[in-house]
Design brief:
- The complex is a heterodimer of chains A (219) and B (235).
- With 219 residues, chain A is of the alpha/beta class.
- Chain A is 16% helix and 26% strand.
- Chain A has helices at 5-13, 28-31, 85-93, 129-135, 196-201; strands at residues 20-24, 42-46, 50-53, 76-82, 99-103, 106-108, 113-114, 138-143, 154-155, 170-173, 176-181, 184-190, 207-208.
- In chain A, α5 (196-201) links the parallel β12 (184-190) and β13.
- The radius of gyration of chain B is 18 Å and the shape is globular.
- Chain B is built from 6 helices and 11 strands.
- The termini of chain B are far apart.
- The chains are: A alpha/beta (219), B alpha/beta (235).
- Chains A and B meet through α3 and α4 of A and α5 and α6 of B.
């Protein structure tokens, strides 16, 4: 069975290490905050200038001056810091953020990512995505393996305008976990009950499958 | 205006000197930390042909979105403009030009502009449409693109508190681009919630030293919230 959005987020959260500073993009990546293992601490960075993002506020806590990068009302966790946009991107560009998790339209075998613009559709802008993919130490892309028409999003070469080049090393989809290296996708895990054949069929770019491929574990 | 006293008492005075075709750098992230009254004053003045440098362009009918209503903006330099139907319409009509700039690069362009640095190299945007036509240089085996800094004839900034000398403090994430914008204007105007006497703000807690600030005005703010999301009620 393909994973649900929440199950993808659960699998993403397994990547976090105690003490990581993590930036989560809008959508599935944000859900990963709900599944951080209880025995570790991670600090969430929001690129509008908040390190230590807390939960959404109660009605009484709502403060127009306290928002996240998605422009949603938010709170600061204990031990948070707040700073300006240049400082925020200094910590991103300078490689101080341990993990970035973001969505994408396409990823290719060379670690290129396209996530911000579909020609012919209205262009809204890249926000902080280009800075994040150029700067983070580890980037995880979350997306469905194929689009709703069944077209693979894991390609030989991205067809859409790029967000960054040579920067993606790990992809977690609704079907699989893959590493990107040496010009190929390397299958490392599959979703429970999903066959290698199905993953092969839905991966357009070169896919390396070596040895037994374990199923993802959800405790 | 005597000595270091930067306080002005009217919006007319605050935006005096703004002319057609000037560049205005504006602080704010979405609708958070925007100089509401200064934007309203620009709308009232009807100044046209403006290049506005700001992370976003407000929403329909509020924030910088107000300046679209009478087509006062010629060009926007922003990282994300997806919140605004009028923006979309004017862009498609060719009435408005947009230069999409990655958010961190935009912040650094303002910071560098205010710090007298004409350009810098960044990996952000290399190999993407943002990098097209820009100088590429390798450092330690990695390619970077050259980005030029930004300054403007005016900067409009929203702060929490300022003293009469123009020393400013920001509140929570309403800080965002405001400190960088404040450094990058030839004339920097700060709209604040509260004006205090010099000495009342702890010197080491000041975010923007008054040297960057030309005018301070006390505003009143609606502080509209773009996306109010609440914690799920405990069941």
């Amino acid at each position: 069975m393909a994973l649900s959005r929440d199950q993808i987020a659960m699998r993403v959260a397994q990547e976090f290490q105690d003490g990581d500073y993590v930036n989560l993009g809008i959508g599935i990546p944000t859900l990963a905050a709900n599944y951080v293992p209880k025995d570790i601490s991670v600090m969430l960075q929001s690129e509008n200038g908040l390190l230590g993002m807390g939960p959404y506020p109660t009605e009484e806590q709502v403060d127009a001056d306290m928002i996240n990068a998605g422009k949603e009302t938010v709170t600061a966790s204990t031990g948070a810091s707040i700073f300006n946009s240049a400082e925020s991107f200094a910590m991103i560009r300078g490689g101080h953020v341990d993990f970035t998790v973001l969505g994408a339209f396409e990823v290719d075998i060379n670690g290129n990512i396209a996530s911000w613009m579909i020609p012919g559709k209205l262009i809204k802008g890249m926000g902080g995505a280009m800075d994040l993919v150029a700067g983070a130490k580890n980037i995880i892309v979350t997306m469905t393996h194929a689009d709703k028409h069944g077209n693979s999003k894991l390609l030989e070469a991205c067809t859409l305008p790029l967000t960054g080049v040579n920067c993606i090393t790990r992809i977690i989809t609704d079907l699989a976990v893959l590493e990107v290296q040496d010009g190929a996708f390397h299958l490392t895990e599959r979703a429970p009950g999903v066959s290698i054949a199905e993953i092969q069929e839905k991966t357009a770019g070169k896919l390396v499958v070596s040895g037994d491929i374990p199923e993802m574990k959800f405790s | 205006m005597a000595g270091f006293n930067k306080v002005v008492s009217s919006y007319e005075e605050a935006m005096q000197g703004l002319e057609d075709n000037m560049t205005v750098i504006a602080g704010g992230f979405g609708l958070c930390g925007i100089p509401e009254g200064l934007i309203a004053q620009i709308k009232k003045m009807g100044t046209k042909g403006l290049t506005v440098v700001s992370n976003n362009c407000g929403v329909d009918g509020f924030g910088l979105g107000l300046l679209l209503e009478d087509k006062q903006i010629k060009k926007m330099v922003s990282s994300y403009v997806g919140e605004n139907a009028l923006f979309e319409k004017q862009l498609l009509n060719g009435e408005l030009e947009v230069e999409l700039t990655p958010q961190g690069t935009l912040a650094e362009k303002m910071r560098a502009g205010g710090a007298g640095i004409p350009a810098f190299y960044t990996a952000t945007g290399y190999g993407t449409p943002v990098g097209e036509g820009k100088e590429v240089k390798e450092f330690n085996g990695r390619p970077y693109i050259m980005e030029e800094s930004i300054t403007g004839e005016f900067a409009i900034v929203k702060a929490w508190k300022a003293d009469r000398y123009g020393n400013c403090m920001y509140r929570h994430t309403a800080m965002n681009f405001n400190p960088m914008a404040a450094t990058a204007g030839k004339i920097t105007v700060v709209e604040v919630e509260e004006i205090v006497e010099p000495g009342e703000l702890e010197p080491s807690q000041i975010h923007t030293p008054g040297i960057y600030v030309n005018r301070v005005i006390k505003g009143s703010f609606e502080k509209r919230i773009e996306r109010k999301v609440l914690a799920k009620e405990a069941s």
